[in-house]
């Protein structure tokens, strides 16, 4: 399972930070940061989700008010 995060779409509500420690606040930029995320393209970051954190990562994606976060299963299907 992996997570994708569009930093450009983020509006800095930081609800994802409250749901999962895989996100941190960047107060200078006013946006969240995907911890250990790899930049796939401009402002798109991707990270594998540890099995123990899958539920929290899903909550983080659901909590995002602008849908900047998506979760995909191992087959590449979007689940959140």
List the helices and strands in order. EHEEEEHE
What's the number of structural domains?
A: 1
General shape? globular
Main sheet attributes: strand count, strand direction, barrel closure: 4 strands, antiparallel
Structural class: alpha+beta
Question: What's the quaternary structure here?
Answer: single chain
**Quick one: how many beta strands?**
6
Biggest sheet, spatial arrangement of strands: 4-5-1-6
Stretches where pLDDT is under 50 for at least 5 consecutive residues are none
Q: For this structure, what is the CATH class? A: Alpha Beta
**CATH architecture annotation name:** 2-Layer Sandwich
Please state roughly what percent of the residues sit in beta strands, choosing from under 5%, 5-15%, 15-25%, 25-35%, 35-45% or over 45%: 25-35%
In angstroms, what separates the terminal alpha carbons?
A: 11 Å
Mean model confidence by pLDDT: 97
- The radius of gyration over CA amounts to 11 Å
Q: How many DSSP helices?
A: 2
Summarize the amount of helix as a percent range: 10-25%
CATH topology: Alpha-Beta Plaits
GO molecular function: iron-sulfur cluster binding; metal ion binding
Protein name: Ferredoxin
Keywords: Electron transport, Iron, Iron-sulfur, Metal-binding, Transport
InterPro entries: Fe-S_cluster_ET
């Amino acid at each position: 399972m992996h997570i994708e995060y569009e930093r450009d779409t983020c509006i800095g509500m930081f609800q994802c930070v409250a749901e999962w420690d895989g996100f941190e606040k960047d107060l200078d930029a006013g946006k969240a940061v995907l911890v250990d995320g790899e930049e796939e393209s401009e402002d798109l970051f991707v990270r594998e989700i540890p099995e123990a954190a899958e539920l929290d990562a899903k909550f983080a994606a659901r909590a995002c008010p602008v849908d900047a976060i998506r979760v995909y299963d191992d087959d590449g299907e979007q689940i959140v």
